[in-house]
Design brief:
This protein has strands at about 5-10, 20-25, 30-35, 40-45, 55-60, 65, 70-75, 80, 90, 95, 100-105. Helices cover about 0% and strands about 45% of the residues. Its cofactor is [2Fe-2S] cluster. InterPro entries: Rieske_2Fe-2S, Rieske_2Fe-2S_sf.
Length: about 110
């Protein structure tokens, strides 16, 4: 599902600070992150294998470490940041309005 529409995905308070929330929008697994109060969104499936990044750990303030082989991605851009991950994640525009998180399922 790709859309130009902003889609409501969660309440702002549902995402813990410096942590993740895995969810799904129209069949697309999405991972939400809160870093210094800012919300970011990427695909939840690791590009290296069958792992949910929402089960991973945030490292160095802006990277998500995959729980399976400990590869990393930059949460802000989706860029692969350390091996074995080499293919970037899709990242999505996110905004918060009235305590609600909206994202667009288009490439950020
Ligand atoms: Fe994520 Fe291998 S499945 S690093």
């Amino acid at each position: 599902m790709a859309t130009e529409e902003w889609v409501r995905v969660a309440d702002y308070d549902d995402v813990p600070e410096e942590d993740t929330l895995g969810t799904e929008i129209g069949g697309v697994p999405v991972c939400l992150y809160k870093l210094d109060g800012e919300i970011y969104a990427t695909d939840n499936k690791c590009t290296h294998g069958d792992a949910d990044l929402s089960d991973g750990l945030i490292q160095d303030g802006c990277e998500i470490e995959c729980p399976l082989h400990e590869g990393r991605f930059d949460i802000r851009s989706g860029k692969a940041a350390s091996p074995p991950c080499s293919e970037d994640l899709r990242s999505y525009p996110a905004r918060v309005e009235g305590g609600v998180i909206y994202i667009k399922l288009v490439q950020a």
